[in-house]
Amino acid sequence: MIPSPEICFSLMDTYEMPDNIRRHSIMVERIARLLAEGLRKEGLNLSLEKVTAGALMHDIAKAPCLKTGEFHSLQGRDICLRHNLAEIAEIVAEHVVLKNHRPDGPITEKEIVYYADKRVNHDLVVSLEERLRYLLDRYGKEMEHLEQAIMRNFEICQELERRIFLALDFKPEDLAPLLQSHGEL
Predict the structure, then answer these.
(1) Which domain holds residue 125?
(2) For the chain, counts of helices (H) and of strands (E)
(3) pLDDT digits (tens, 9 = 90+) for 117-140
(4) Based on the structure, what is the number of domains in the chain?
(5) Contact criterion met (CB below 8 Å) for 140 and 146
(6) CA distance 17 to 151
(7) Does the CA dihedral 151-73-12-4 come out positive or negative?
């Protein structure tokens, strides 16, 4: 089942998602939906329902995992499966690191949510470079292997950004103004 936004918000309550993570998830959803709508207009076969639900649910396990040290993406997938939300479980599982990424394949709902998450720092739309600096400062902790993993992940994200925006009639830097013009910022 693909959950409605109402079900996603109910699950956020069930899993006691803090307001700051909820605001982040809502902003990720707004970006992901804007991108998916634009890509659909260009002929890509994407499910807006999957994009919306995957974006809203991508950090469903973040708060408990901050306490336990578990990977929130994997715990989020497990939460989705526990609630019969298999259609979005892999979107949630791969919002931090894409697996089996195919640069020559069609853009997927999973890639859109992954990219949108990288464009939101807390609840603000930022460039990939700004988000990279934040992630390196917060999670790199001057540990070379973590910094290298974050950098590799962002190389994939930069390549994905190029592919997404080749198909759209706006640029990455237009995301915040477009959301603002739609009354979503």
Answers:
(1) 5-181
(2) 10, 2
(3) 999 988 899 998 888 888 777 766
(4) 1
(5) yes
(6) 28
(7) positive
Dihedral, CA atoms, 104, 53, 11, 7, nearest 10 degrees?
-150
Tell the burial category of 176 from Cβ atoms under 10 Å away from its Cβ (0-12, 13-18, 19+). middle
Is the entire prediction scored with pTM above 0.90? yes
Q: Identify the CATH number of the domain in which residue 77 sits.
A: 1.10.3210
pLDDT digits (tens, 9 = 90+) for 135-152: 777 766 667 777 787 788
Whole-angstrom distance, CA of residue 18 vs CA of residue 177: 27
- For the record, the structure tokens of 167 come out as 């198909």
Reference 119, options 73, 163, 160, 89; nearest CA is: 160
The sign one gets for the Cα dihedral 178, 172, 124, 25 is positive
pLDDT at 102: 83
Q: Is residue 100 scored above 90 in pLDDT? A: no
